[in-house]
Design brief:
Number of strands: 7
CATH class of the largest domain: Alpha Beta
CATH superfamily of the largest domain: Protein of unknown function (DUF541), domain 1
Number of domains: 2
Distance between the termini: 51 Å
CATH architecture of the largest domain: 2-Layer Sandwich
Amino acid sequence: MWIVWLLVLLGFPVTVQAHDEMKPETPTLTISETGTVTQAPDTAFVTFGLGSPGKVLAEAQRRNSAVMGNVIDRLRELQIDKDRIQTSSFTVSPHYRPQPKRSADAPPASPEIVGYVVSNMVTVEIRTLDKVGTVIEEVLKVGANSFHGLHWGLRDEQPVRLSALKQAATKAREKAAVLSEALQVKLVRVLSVSEGGRMVRPAALMARMAMDVGGGDVPISPGELKIEATVTLVYEIASN
């Protein structure tokens, strides 16, 4: 005791540690469940592109702009609103003259640009699904030279997602009740809730064959979208 007072008088800090009793860990039960709702899509997104070569950049750009203008005009004739046509990529790529073979001790030749390719990629939102095949065919006819596929969607996903979420939560509660009864424990309260989800789209037709279609629509089937939601519940449990 005299040593403690001496340390205080000399100005040294004195720390007294209190050892709290360790609290027992709260027993918990964790449950995860998934709810699934299927829904027919009401929107299609088609992506196609156009690559235009030219010896000089201005020439490549001019060719690309002319053909893409025809594509946009054709889409407008098919009653696709202008605000549903979006440029998703635009690139300019130089082409270089192939390097000649050289001896091991010869310095490399400077790269020489011999041309350019201007590439434009466009995504079209189509809300009348029976037009999808026609849009693909007509766009390729008027000059688009690459097709990058399509995917399906919903204009308003929220109601479907909420339905899947509600289903998942109900299944999680039911499973928790069954497990607590089987394990002879009591569900005290929910400690935490977490949720997640995704949309599972059907495999879209890669209509490469549309490049060679001479007449008639490209056969397209939208199928159904699958919307999944996952709910995880953590319960505090106690002995019965």
